[in-house]
Amino acid sequence: MAIPEFKDFLLNIRPSFDPANTVYNVFWENIFGCTLYLTEESFGLNVSKTKSKICTGKERLDEIENAFFDVTQLRLSYNVYKAVYAIVHALHDLLFCAKEGNPAVLCGDVSRIEPWEVTKHLKRVNFVNRFGEAVYFDENGDPPAA
């Protein structure tokens, strides 16, 4: 199973005008084989002498055929995503006490959590993630069969 909405997220990546945020820009330049924002003022270069094509930032990722966009093989990543949320739910149940009609208050000592306590609460996890999938474990602590 692919991570729901992940392909849409990837296809909506755009270059950033923030010089501190270079990750998207490097990605963009590698995918399209071009250079972003190459100007004489910013790099002290003569643009006409460069061999790199200039990116406009308006190139379309949905027109690229690249293995990077094949999100159907990300089952492991999606399972890690669900596992992290399951642990978060278990820790929340372990650390917070909720009484009917009252908001949860901290009742556990974070510095004294034992692994067996986390395991105990993890086995009782039962929630629906933001993609509508129920996450829970059977009496042996195994997830349901897919």
Automatic annotation (TrEMBL):
Residues 27-144 form the Receptor ligand binding region domain. One of its GO terms (molecular function) is G protein-coupled receptor activity. It is found in: Membrane. GO terms for cellular component: membrane. This is Receptor ligand binding region domain-containing protein. Keywords: Membrane, Transmembrane, Transmembrane helix. The keyword Signal does not apply. InterPro entries: ANF_lig-bd_rcpt (IPR001828), GPCR_3_Ca_sens_rcpt-rel (IPR000068), Peripla_BP_I (IPR028082). Pfam families: ANF_receptor. It comes from the Eukaryota. Signal peptide: none annotated. It comes from Lepisosteus oculatus (Spotted gar). SUPFAM superfamilies: Periplasmic binding protein-like I (SSF53822).
